[in-house]
Amino acid sequence: MRVLQLFLLTSLGLVTNVSTLNSCSNCGEFIVPYPLSTNENCGDKRYKVYCNDEKLEFLSATGTYYKILSIDPSANKLVIMPPPILKNTCYSSDLLMGGLFLDQSLPFNISTQNTVLLFNCTNNILQSPLNCTSNSICRQYEKKVEEGFGCMNTLCCHYLKDSAMNSHKIRVRIGSCTAYTCLVGFTPDDPLQTWNYGIELQWLSPNN
Ligand SMILES: *[C@@H]1O[C@H](CO)[C@@H](O)[C@H](O)[C@H]1NC(C)=O
Ligand SMILES: *[C@@H]1O[C@H](CO)[C@@H](O)[C@H](O)[C@H]1NC(C)=O
Ligand SMILES: *[C@@H]1O[C@H](CO)[C@@H](O)[C@H](O)[C@H]1NC(C)=O
After folding, report:
1. Which residue lies with its CA nearest to atom 9 of ligand 2?
2. What is the pLDDT of residues 2-25, one digit of tens each?
3. Nearest atom, ligand 3, residue 76 CA
4. Largest CB tally within 10 Å, which of 63, 95, 97, 114?
């Protein structure tokens, strides 16, 4: 009897554990894996994402929503869509918010797999470790990708956003650079047709 009681208690404990690990239901066609959470009743609420009109979105510290393009739960990673560059300008849509800022109190950061392309920069950017040469891949983008046409012939640069740089923001502003885009997993010499546009974010595993 005692053994049975223990057994029941143990299995109840297990049931509780499993239910706290419940993942959220799909958002449109999108599977929302644990620990991502679209509402209070599922996932882990520190890992909040938003299901707006059946589109899964990530909210930045400045209140901008970025569309989630893909999620790799086994690697604790997700990729958000870089903000569009507004037509006939060289302004990223989040320019007035200063670019992308992640809330540092949340368990997300920008991974080290991102190559950032910056456009319409001023000369003072040249002091930082960026590649602003005429061979920079930003030149291909502004010449061959329609969204970059508004940035043509501006000073542009690219850099690999590795751990040496701040992992919670991609900054743009008037008087520095006013537009950006980003590639995930870019390696030098990858042809433009194979570029993978996105900003890869990584999350701290909930068990840590
Ligand atoms: C480039 O940035 C400057 C401010 O730094 C702005 O006045 C100008 O309009 C921008 N150029 C384009 C093409 O958007
Ligand atoms: C700048 O980037 C281009 C394209 O990846 C590369 O060929 C070139 O060597 C880089 N230049 C510098 C100074 O890093
Ligand atoms: C981002 O977060 C992950 C998981 O916590 C950590 O392993 C990684 O070192 C962080 N990356 C940077 C660039 O801070």
Report:
1. 135
2. 444 444 444 444 444 444 478 999
3. 4
4. 114
Distance 193 CA to ligand 1 centre (A): 28
Hunting for tokens 């743009």 — which residue is that? 172
CA separation, residue 86 to residues 27, 45, 80, 165 (Å): 27, 33, 18, 26
CA–centroid distance, 70 to ligand 2, in Å, is: 29
Residue closest to 46 by CA, chosen among 55, 56, 34? 34
Report d(CA 155, CA 202) in Å as an integer.
30
Report the alpha-carbon distance of residue 25 to residue 39 in Å, rounded. 10
What pLDDT is recorded for position 165?
A: 63
What CA–CA distances, in Å, run from 113 to 46, 99, 101?
24, 18, 17
Break the chain into its structural domains and give their ranges.
2-203
- Residues framing ligand 1 (Cβ under 6 A): 89-91, 120, 122, 150, 174-175, 178
Q: What pLDDT digit, counting tens, does each position of 118-130 carry?
A: 999 999 887 778 9
Distance CA 40, CA 97 (A): 28
Protein residue closest via CA to atom 2 of ligand 2: 136
Please name the helix (run of DSSP H) or strand (run of DSSP E) that holds residue 139, with its range, or none.
Answer: helix 137-144
Please, is 168 exposed, middle or buried when counting C-beta atoms within 10 Å of its C-beta (0-12, 13-18, 19+)?
middle
Q: Ligand 3 centre from 59 Cα, in Å? A: 19
Provide the whole-model pTM: 0.89
Q: Residue range 138-154: average pLDDT?
A: 97
